[in-house]
Design brief:
Oligomer: homodimer
CATH architecture of the largest domain in chain A: 3-Layer(aba) Sandwich
Largest sheet of chain A: 8 strands, mixed
CATH topology of the largest domain in chain A: Rossmann fold
Largest interface: A-B, 57 and 57 residues
Radius of gyration of chain A: 24 Å
Shape of chain A: globular
Number of helices of chain A: 16
Number of domains of chain A: 2
Structural class of chain A: alpha/beta
Mean pLDDT of chain A: 94
Chain lengths: 480, 480
């Protein structure tokens, strides 16, 4: 017996009066979900976070057990919840799947990725979804779990996955172990996590949809959710089947992606026609039927909106025997993926050749006030610009190293200004960039060019900046 | 001088103390706009409605002058406003363009149609916009109008039309007449009319966007709008150019069309996957960011959403030298145009062959509680079903004759039931179809099949109906 297993046994013995919740996958959702479960509202759980024994995960697991929450986040509740579970001693992280033996409830928070690498032209005619990792994760549960454990899938999956993948795998593993298949309980419930200052509350106080493969599974899932979600603040909605709630999740994100793609397309048209899409959107959003209309932006990033619509389209073909894609949803992803390229073309058409230019990027995160570079649209723009220009430098207060591109990122604006950039590209809508003292600093630089690809500045700031600098705003014709 | 001109002169003399507003085009917008102007809030106008001397328009003009408002509408204010203007004697309708000579303000409400006939496959690769009628209408204004008349375009036009079409034509006609081109005033302001019980208020009490080709035109347009719009209830928003407000209008409708297309696509997926999209949409719309998500439906009809997105795409190519369509917007129209065919396929897949079946349609209007068959999606479904089935019959309480198809429509449900239909297709969401006494009648028919293509019935009604009949709902898997 290795020391990890001894620690795990000790943890279980110490918490023998508690039900055990195991979280499978300690990423952006699983890590925070662990805290929410370890600080449940109406029940005391012993929570085990389980991840794969990869180098990265093992580092994360060690951080957890050493008292260091492994994600950088703005939400002060994260540290409070983490320290609270430390002092209660009800959280343990491990790479040993034997941990699932102890679980009364398992929450599946593993990744399910889409491979777009076969679509060099961004048309997405050839994207691929590989379920191998997900299948392996479910097999692991089938091998180790108690037959009456409640398994709740929280991963965003192609609609139909619980019925067509999870259930058959678990049944097969159960039958190998001669377990009673009737005690199988599978639920599905998706989170609506929003990284940022309300990370925890976006799980705990936010309405949730859930379902089960049968009445009993749905009811057990509901009972569990009620112990961690504050149902005095938000509703739980039961849907009729796991396929329905799986579809709800991808539909929700596809809708968002489609709204963004719509704005992307009109943003280009507005630039061509020399009008200001920002004031148009403002004028239209007064209608309640149009309040979801989005403003122009450099595009969409993050882990979800860049792939979820594809999961649905894939499911349609692979689980439901249809030959056709969900065109609008796939096209939305494709249009959004192209947006950094459009932004680059706009930059070139307004400011001309970049080849002798020193260029500073402000922001690499895919979202304002968050340090998350996963699938950030800034990447596409940065890659095109850096190929083309003399030199580049990057600022971001929430990111100190851009892992995907192996690049240093500075958090001092002064450092950037010393670099003497000729073009400033604002590429993430971090709040500090809009603050008056920051805008004043830019106003005092020697005349240069500014490309605001995220709609950071208000009209007054734009007019001020344009008295000294050349400024171009995404979704807007030339500023006179 | 013909008698029409004498009447017109008499009308002008009788109203010589009033400013004259001429409405060009007396269709669904122009007719009601005439009433709003003749009942302006802060000014007494003499209003002249002008239309072309076609057979249809002449009939309409005569009805107007004979005291018969020519549109059937649910809004009681229409009759009140109409009778009020009759008793004031401040409205006159004519086909004589000389009427524009008297106008201080002209509101352009003529049609601008899109020809989709080259796209038999509904892909819209080859749609065409013919501006000839619109150009002629503007030329007429240039020939007759006073040089200082304010011309407000209210027609939905391709963005850029005021600058690229209206202004050059008027300047040309003015120069032929040696009029001062500096006094030319062109504004653009679009309505957000919603036919139905609040027809008048949807003009008078609803926020409006406006613009002008220059500062003076915009200011004059604003002044005029303030006399007819209740700005204590809603805002007027000035945009920077006529192209901007033209774009706002088509963007607004394109957004709506895209939302509908999104629902159409997922509706098919839900049917294939055997889930209930209605409950999914309900669960998602609790999020404010997702409140514009639409419910499944047979598709989109009416004059605007079926073509406006195409105007924008056309403008992009023809006024702004772009080679590409606005793909999402064009695709939205295409997807929506295909919806009746999807509904037909669904009908066939659920209820099988129709060839020996007598089929009753409930509703032909494109919208519930309105009598308007223009571009109704019911047409596509009806044509497919009638080709295929033994016999059909149609019910609609708001339409007595289906002009486009030259078909009789009944307003007595009893008449329909005597026909002994084997399938009932609900194709318009008229309120009376949801009323309990109506549902009870259906419940008492001998067992038959029901296809609800508009989501008319609530869950309780569906369950009741399904005890006796086979029922299928659009956007929803089979009902057990």
């Amino acid at each position: 017996m290795d020391s990890d297993y001894i620690n795990l046994k000790e943890f279980i013995n110490r918490n023998s009066d508690k039900k055990v919740v195991a979280i499978q996958g300690l990423g952006f959702v699983g890590a925070v979900m662990s805290l929410v479960c370890a600080n449940a509202l109406t029940e005391e759980y012993a929570v085990i976070g389980v991840d794969l024994p990869s180098e990265k995960s093992l580092k994360r697991i060690n951080e957890f057990n050493d008292g260091l929450f492994p994600l950088v986040a703005d939400d002060p509740k994260i540290e409070i919840f983490f320290q609270n579970s430390r002092s209660k001693g009800n959280f343990y992280a491990t790479a040993d799947p034997v941990a699932f033996e102890f679980a009364d409830v398992v929450i599946v928070d593993v990744n399910l990725d889409v491979d777009k690498s076969n679509s060099e032209d961004l048309s997405l005619n050839n994207f691929n979804i590989n379920l191998d990792n997900f299948r392996n994760a479910i097999s692991t549960l089938g091998i180790f779990c108690k037959s009456n454990a409640l398994i709740i899938v929280e991963t965003t999956v192609p609609p139909g996955t619980c019925e067509n993948v999870v259930k058959p795998i678990l049944l097969e593993e159960f039958s190998k172990r001669n377990l009673d298949s009737k005690s199988l309980k599978i639920g599905h419930s998706y989170e609506r996590v929003m990284p940022g200052p309300e990370y925890i509350d976006s799980i705990r106080n936010y309405p949730r949809v859930y379902s089960g493969i049968d009445e009993n599974s749905a009811t057990e899932t509901e009972k569990f959710l009620k112990t961690i979600i504050d149902t005095s603040l938000c509703d739980l909605t039961r849907l009729n089947s796991t396929t329905a709630s799986e579809m709800a999740k991808v539909l929700e994100n596809s809708y968002r992606a489609a709204n963004i793609a719509f704005a992307v397309e009109w943003s280009r048209f507005a630039e061509e026609a020399g009008v200001n899409l920002w004031e148009i959107v403002d004028a239209i959003r007064v209608r309640k039927t149009h309040s979801n209309l989005m403003f122009p932006n450099i595009g969409v990033g993050g882990y979800c909106l860049t792939k979820d619509p594809l999961l649905a389209s894939w499911a349609r073909k692979n689980f439901f025997d249809q030959s056709e894609d969900l065109f609008m949803s796939v096209d939305s992803v494709s249009i959004n993926d192209q947006m950094p390229m459009f932004a680059y073309k706009r930059l070139r058409s307004v400011f001309g050749d970049l080849k002798d230019k020193r260029i500073a990027f402000f922001g690499v995160s895919y979202r304002g006030d968050v340090g998350d570079t996963r699938f950030t649209p800034v990447r596409g723009l940065y890659e095109l610009v850096s190929l083309d220009s003399k030199e580049t430098i990057i600022h971001d207060p929430f990111v100190d190293f851009w892992e995907e591109l192996d690049l240093q990122v500075f958090d001092s604006a002064e450092r950037i200004f010393e670099f003497n950039p000729e073009i400033l590209i604002f590429s993430t809508a971090h709040s500090i960039y809009k603050q008056e003292n920051f805008v004043d600093k830019i106003l005092n630089l020697k005349p240069l060019s500014i490309f605001d690809s995220v709609g950071l500045f208000n009209e007054c700031q734009i007019q001020n900046l344009s008295t000294r600098h050349r400024i171009s705003i995404i979704g807007r014709g030339d500023i006179s």
